[in-house]
Amino acid sequence: MEVMKHSDELSFDGPFDDEGRPVLITAAATPYEEQHRQRVRRYLQLMFWRVPALLLAWLAYGIWENGLISLAIIAVSIPLPWMAVLIANDRPPRRPEEPRRYDAARRARAMGVAPRPALEQPQQIVDVPPDVPQQHRPEAGGAVPS
């Protein structure tokens, strides 16, 4: 499968590059089917190494009769299925022109934040006994003894 070359300039001189391949002149994302094909290909490439690793462990045990070498090879091959799934399910890389934004209002709607009136409204001190020293009064920055 040929990958189309991106062009920064649009012209009507011809829709091909120097090597005769068509030039992609759109900023649209790659189609879902193509992304899926790439993810499946990545998955199969990683899972391909699982069987040769097991065969190599069997061969290493047959040659050196050392179980530690075989176990080390098998231990390296154990996380391959998890890695393959994580890498294959990853989204395509973010394009440089795609901004990274944090939208607090959208996140609050998604999380369903409940109103907190006790925390959001300023509290008033109604009564401070006269026997409390001045340095322990709230307006002086001290703690009020209970």
Q: What is the topology?
A:
Elements: E1 5-6, E2 23-24, H1 32-48, H2 50-64, H3 67-77, H4 80-88, H5 104-111, H6 117-120
Parallel strand pairs: 1-2
Helix pairs in contact: 1-4, 2-3
Write structural notes for this entry.
- There is one protein chain.
- This protein has helices at residues 32-48, 50-64, 67-77, 80-88, 104-111, 117-120, and strands spanning 5-6, 23-24.
- It is mostly helical and 146 residues long.
- It has a domain at 50-90.
Strand order of the largest sheet: 1-2
The number of helices is 6
Radius of gyration: 32 Å
Class per helix and strand makeup: mainly alpha
Strand percentage, roughly? under 5%
Name the helix and strand elements from N-terminus to C-terminus, one letter apiece: EEHHHHHH
By DSSP, the count of extended strands is 2
| Major β-sheet annotation | 2 strands, parallel
Unreliable sequence segments: none
- The average pLDDT value, as a whole number, equals 76
Helical amount? 40-55%
Report how far apart the termini are.
76 Å
Outline: flat
Q: Which features characterize this protein?
A:
146 residues; 2 strands; transmembrane helix; single chain; mainly alpha; DUF3099; membrane; 3% strand
